[in-house]
Design a protein that fits this description.
Distance between the termini: 29 Å
Shape: globular
Structural class: alpha+beta
Mean pLDDT: 94
Bound molecules: FE2/S2 (inorganic) cluster, fe (ii) ion
Helix content: 10-25%
Number of strands: 21
Strand order of the largest sheet: 2-11-10-5-4-3-6
């Protein structure tokens, strides 16, 4: 990010802190229909269109570091195996033997130069090619192995982070990310290590869980001692990007003691990502990577929260910490803490417990007559824009009218456009 952009964003954060109303021309956000959180029909549309066509975080190269390494992955539902090929290429396949559907790998992780189904020992190369069929003479003479390789799933890398996409025709990951691809270059995705990765099951719709991490309106109220000392919610600046992505950027409150910030942000022994610029060092920023990744990014951590729908009313929350290096100490884990009652177990950290505390109760309410629609403020515009993007991804005509989000936030509010810059300049000139 160049110096002019940093200066513009810093000025905009100050301007946000001063404004007495939403920016001129920012649309009034119509209520979201409550049934978007409770309708089986809408849930099916999300599964079929959003989660089948978007790039989804699936893993990290540290989980399959060498040729022949593989890992199972099923957070998006289908059984998938991600393979570090003997040729060095990382690929994803359905973990489904082309004979009668048994899995070709049964361990969560392993290493092998061939993938062999345990049922009748059909054997595949790490590029998915079928190369071995026992008792081959009992199949027809024209039985063609070449068209019975493992079925691939699109797989691309953001540095060392692995993403998959079930849509053969999807745009490349770089294009999907748009400006984020360059903005994130300073966070060293090509060198960053996987420090920890844990899952927790939540009793609410995935959007209810995720939306707790898509606005700062709640910060002073549910995070008074954890996040509030680091984030000045009044000076928060939201930016909307193409394809449904978004960023929040907020400075620390003026009264925050710098020693307090340093104590939280500068863990001893952990290596800084030296390429991170001024905003990543001095402000809190958090990015939504559509559809289901939310991550603060700083000079110490890339710690995404990833939200996986497991049913209409349940969610698997994946808590990941990536960092450059942590010396000889234990691997950093920003989001979980040891649970003394279970020596091998872990529990969510205080911040995550705060963010998830109302999910189950909100889901109960959402299924009652009391929950009719959701009014959102300007400060919650990232949530509204996220819902607009869900409907666009599904295809607006495919969404029943009663469930639709009205598309009121136009492209004039989406990066690189930002009418706030002109308003700020006008006001400064007055
Ligand atoms: S199901 Fe895999 S070899 Fe038969
Ligand atoms: Fe929060």
């Amino acid at each position: 990010m160049d110096a002019a952009e940093v200066a513009r964003l810093k000025a905009l954060m100050e301007w946000e802190g001063q404004r007495r109303a939403p920016p001129h021309g920012f649309p009034h956000l119509p209520d979201l229909p409550a049934a978007r959180y409770t309708s089986p029909e809408y849930y099916a549309l999300e599964r079929d269109h959003v989660f089948r066509k978007s790039w989804l975080f699936a893993g990290h190269m540290d989980e399959i570091p060498e040729p022949g390494c593989y890992m199972r992955w099923h957070n998006a539902g289908d059984p998938i195996v991600i393979v570090h090929g003997m040729d060095g290429v990382v690929r994803a396949f359905y973990n489904t033997c082309r004979h009668r559907g048994a899995p070709v790998v049964t361990a969560d992780r392993g290493k092998s130069s061939r993938l062999m189904c345990g049922y009748h020992n059909w054997t595949y190369k790490t590029d998915g090619t079928l190369v071995g069929v026992p008792e081959r003479q009992d199949f027809p003479p024209d039985f063609d192995l070449s068209c019975r390789g493992l079925l691939p799933v699109r797989c691309e890398l953001l540095g060392r982070a692995i993403f998959v996409n079930f849509d053969e025709g999807a745009m490349p990951l770089k294009q999907w990310m748009g400006p984020l691809w360059d903005e994130w270059a300073e966070f060293a995705f090509d060198r960053i290590r996987l420090a920890s990765r844990h899952c927790f099951d939540l009793q609410c719709n995935w959007k209810i869980a995720m939306e707790a991490n898509m606005e700062v309106y709640h910060v002073p109220f549910i995070h008074p001692t954890t996040v509030a000392p680091l984030v000045d919610a009044r000076r928060n600046l939201n930016t909307l990007y193409p394809n449904g992505h978004a960023r929040m950027l907020a400075p620390a409150p003026r009264q925050t003691d710098r020693e307090h910030v340093r104590a939280i942000d500068s863990p001893p022994g952990w290596q800084q990502i030296e390429s991170v610029g001024e905003l990543g060092r001095t402000a809190t920023q958090s990015y939504t990577l559509f559809p289901n990744w939310v991550s603060p990014l700083s000079n110490y951590f890339v710690p995404p929260l990833v939200f996986w729908p497991t049913s209409l009313t349940t969610t698997r929350l994946e808590l990941v910490t990536m960092a450059l290096d942590w010396g000889d100490g234990s691997a950093p884990d920003l989001w979980t803490v040891p649970d003394e009652s279970q020596p091998n177990g872990r529990q969510m950290s205080p911040i995550i417990l705060e963010d998830t505390q109302f999910g189950e109760a909100i889901q109960h309410s959402a299924q009652s007559a009391a929950f009719r629609s959701v009014p959102l403020s300007y400060q919650e515009a990232r949530i509204y824009a996220f819902h607009q993007s869900l409907d666009k991804m599904i295809g607006i005509d495919n969404v029943p009218p009663a469930l639709r989000t009205q598309q009121v936030i136009g492209p004039e509010w989406v990066w690189p456009n930002d009418p706030r810059v002109a308003q700020m300049a006008r006001e400064a000139a007055e």
